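<goal> How does this chain fold?
<body> The protein record starts here
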Amino acid sequence: MIKSPSEISKKLIPWYLEHKRDLPWRTTKLPYNIWLSEIMLQQTRVAQGIPYYNAFITEFPTIFDLANASEEKILKLWQGLGYYSRARNLHATAIYISEELNGVFPSTHKELLQLKGVGDYTASAISSISFNLPIAVVDGNVYRVLSRYFGIATPINSTAGIKEFKKLAQQLIDSEKPGIYNQAIMEFGATQCKPQNPACGFCVFNDRCVALQKKNISELPVKLKKTKIKKIYFNYFVILSKKNKTILQQRTGKGIWQNLYEFPLIETDEDVTIEALQELETFKTFIDQFSFSSTVLYNDKAIIHKLSHRHIHTRFWISETNLESKNAISITEINTFPVPILIANFINQFFGDKFQHKNKKNSYI
């Protein structure tokens, strides 16, 4: 155990200053930039987040620019990053700060917590990095470092664990350099005290690490089992007219992919056969609405798209029609709409070979 919080800080900060990665948001302390980066890095790897951060800063250099943008434009720029509620919350918060606070970010942890999409971790990061407030961050990296260093087996996703680690992290923070300290411990967890194969032989704390001494590094941190994964089944109908037009519809519900676009969808409780699909009232409605002349199964094997608590088993059906719907869009416009990455991947694959799909091994209705 440490004798004082400074024992960790005295080793951790020099390590950070020597080994930190060159990341674009580390060149500034502006709360707008820090907030944007932290929201993007939730549930996202740093390498994946960097190009998105750069794109947003280029497109929306100030919070006023972000506030004045359309949600559709923001979702399109966000496309592929996942967890799209982050983008919607980002826009809502930008509008609030722009209109209600004259573009000035709240400067206290308590006030930051009132912003949509901002939790304790993000508020702590902005507070310490932008405003030099001694408020500790606790993310997955911090949980890992602290649990191993102190040998703590309390589950990190339990109520008791969340309180215990937050209290400990707060006791350890360097009150004179809170922003640097917080970034240092997160960086240490990300690049040194990694989930798999941590570099213990070159660790500045290997003389004090309880997990290393007890040889149970791989067992820490402890995490309660995840919620059972639910399987759901999507059947997308890619409707093609003779004039090379198709249909995209916007998801308006509160579920996944809110306000993103997709092809007309029939959702089922299980993977359906062609015969079972024909019997569905929703499919019969599709035939009446779009006047299908033929429907071809594009992928014999379902595409499985994995989200945190559900796996989406997806089949795409290519349906030709003689009608021209008033809501139809040209295929050349399809890439201008924000869509889930599942749809984006299909679009990139299919519309490159759309005239060859009948030569594939398919099932017909």
